[in-house]
Amino acid sequence: MKTSMLLFTVAILLIAGCKKSSDEDPTPGGQNDIPAIDNAVQAFMNTYAIPGVSLAITKDDKLVYVKSYGKMSGTDNTAITNSNLFRIASVSKPITSVGIMKLVEAGKLTLDSKVFGPGSILGSDFPSSHLGDVSDVTIRNLLHHTTNAWPNNGSDPMFQQPTMNHSQLISWTLDNYNAVTTRGIFSYSNFGYCILGRVIEKLSGKSYEQFIKDEVLTPCGISTMVMSGNTLADRKPNEVIYNGQNGNNPYLYNITRMDSHGGWLASATDLARFMVKVDGFPGKADILQPSTLTLMTTMSVPSSNYACGWGVNSANHWWHTGSLPGTATEIIRANSGFCWVVLCNSRNNSANFSGALDGLIWPFINDTSTPWQDIDQF
Known about the structure:
This protein is an alpha+beta fold. It has one domain: 3-Layer(aba) Sandwich (Beta-lactamase), CATH 3.40.710. Helices cover 33% and strands 12% of the residues. The strands form two sheets. A six-stranded antiparallel beta sheet has the order 2-1-9-8-7-6, with helices on both faces. β7 (318-324) and β8 (327-333) form a beta hairpin.
């Protein structure tokens, strides 16, 4: 009897002790809401008919605010969560640039390496009678968008011939687009970054996706990023639904073929992990050497505000946007020690939309009274 009573008393004490601990601190280290940010995001969504948004903000390389808002679509009320993956569109370009920089550090190429023709990286891998027209194109031209060929306009080759694979599309483009032009003039080119993906494959012996996972994403602590499918039926686990506006069909294009210029799926936290490992801030060790970061973020043509896969300016801010039907994204690295990511599952075609997306978080970064917590949610 005495033994039984003793065990009963111990059990009661243990239960009481557990309850007390739980009641005192149910969510140790949890994130506090910042209503001003939440209200701004909700107002942005309401103004531009965006069903869902994911947001991640880092300060001194710590994830200090991460939150998701809204739902999948007008007919699917499933809530967007922090684990949801979004098409990031051209925010894929900085990721590809970091991949190229890893090859620079490995001594596999330089920015002045030639891409096509005799003695080049790709040589005659992509048969065309016009290889001589592009034999002067360098890695630098492709990274800086200064080939002055294959522009992102109504005839962008990446939106043509949707049934062709990369090899077929590159040969077809070299045959059918005039690339005899003056290099060094900025002209944004998705096709140029498609070629960079093939450079990575040639020099690494791996698929573009696998190389980036091995050499860029894994060192950043990212395990969930994958390549996008094309149709709603191809939707990956945790992927959002994309909502077209003004008759745009978000499931019309060959997104998978856009791999190195616009094909990645990521969560906001994934991209925040990427940012803090390439931002040059001291909080977390970068995956590139300081000299390589400088090479990557040095402006090319002064009027372009573009470096190697990043928008840059004289204030030492870095950024990139992404835009596809049903998708709008942006990553920003500010010189004050902040980085942030905004991912949307729709895109508004109004003239003010891009500016509103770009300006969404800046007021809170610049306001010294914003109540950032000293927490790290990575």
